Amino acid sequence: MNCVRIHVPTYVVLIFACKSIGPDQKATDLDDPMDWGKNCGVGTCNQLDFLPFVCSACRLEFCATHRFPDAHLCAEWSSKDKVRTVCSKCGGVLEPPKDSIDLEPSKLIELHQSSGCTLHKAAQNEWEGPPLYRCSFEKCCVEQRHGWSICPDCGLRFCLQHRHPGDHACTKPQEIASAASARREEIRKIISQNMASLPLSSTVKRAGPARKKPVNPAAELMKIRHKAKGDPKVSLEDRLYLVVYPPNDDAQDTGSTTPASQALFFRKTQKVGQLIDISATHFKIVNVNNNSRYLEKFLHVHRALDGVRLAPGETLEAVLQSGETVHLVRGS
Do β-strands 6-7 and 48-49 pair in parallel, antiparallel, or remain unpaired? Predict the structure, then answer.
């Protein structure tokens, strides 16, 4: 009888030791741990290994001692091509034609480069190495296969020296900032148009000559409270009174040239996002803020006093005061 040596990793022993036996199960019914691993392909060794090595030439499994070709006297290793010719220009691995297997490497490189680095390239499945890339920065000549960084703004591939947007003169952040600036300017124009159509009794400042008679904020707030609509369950102490304007586009769809404002009251602890939902329901306009596929149709709240867009997660009492005016603006 041949003696079999067993190499059992610690985690396998723990798995086998932790197996529980059911009430109707015997210890002899458990799986034999001898069936879990593979025996070394060397007949004189035959060691049981749970993490065997596979020879790339003969594709047999061996233990750690006999994993190298010369250790298990691999018969297929001598017939394998262990040297590859690499082009100095494109970095591709070359393969000689089938009718000229003994072609010298210098001749093979000459034929490959004369074809514009297109012929005699080894197939990808035969050469498992990663492709060779060059840094996308025009003044950089670094070519490598590993260690690349992808710019999160422009999506191009750069070396470690030029991986930051400032190092490769990335223009994408400038484009984003310009688009945001243009969008803010457009919102300011919309707010200015709405402010120009407000009555003189409004508490919102507007361009033009100064009024002779100053507006009493307390009196204006009393008017807003008298006209405001909202949930009657909200107590008087918890109410926040606002003048809300619907989006211009939604007002034009209904045939109105100027959106009609409405005094509404909300709970002070409610979020800006809840203000959008309640206002959209009151004005009977489309609200798709819960669907990320329609970012261009999202509703946003802008404070009329300075045009600042309010974040949906902020509470109303933290960013607004009773008597202020807000505008619903549609867009991303």
Answer: parallel
How far, rounded to the nearest angstrom, does the alpha carbon of residue 147 sit from its chain's CA centroid?
A: 20
pLDDT tens for each residue of 221-247: 888 888 889 989 999 899 999 999 998
State the pairing for strand pair 157-158/262-267.
Answer: unpaired
Neighbours of 53 (CB within 10 A): 19
The C-alpha atoms of residue 8 and residue 16 are separated, in whole angstroms, by 11
- Could you read off the pLDDT of 269-323 as tens digits, one per residue? 999 989 989 988 888 888 888 887 777 888 889 898 888 889 888 999 999 989 8
Q: How many whole angstroms separate alpha carbon 301 and alpha carbon 294?
A: 17
Q: Cα separation of 15 and 165, whole Å?
A: 49
Residues 221, 242: Cα–Cα separation, whole Å: 9
Q: Strand 262-267 and strand 85-86: pairing?
A: unpaired
H/E segment holding residue 175: helix 172-196
Angle of CA points 35, 37, 40, to nearest 5° = 115
* Amino acid in the structure at residue 258: T
Report field, pTM of the whole predicted structure over 0.85: no
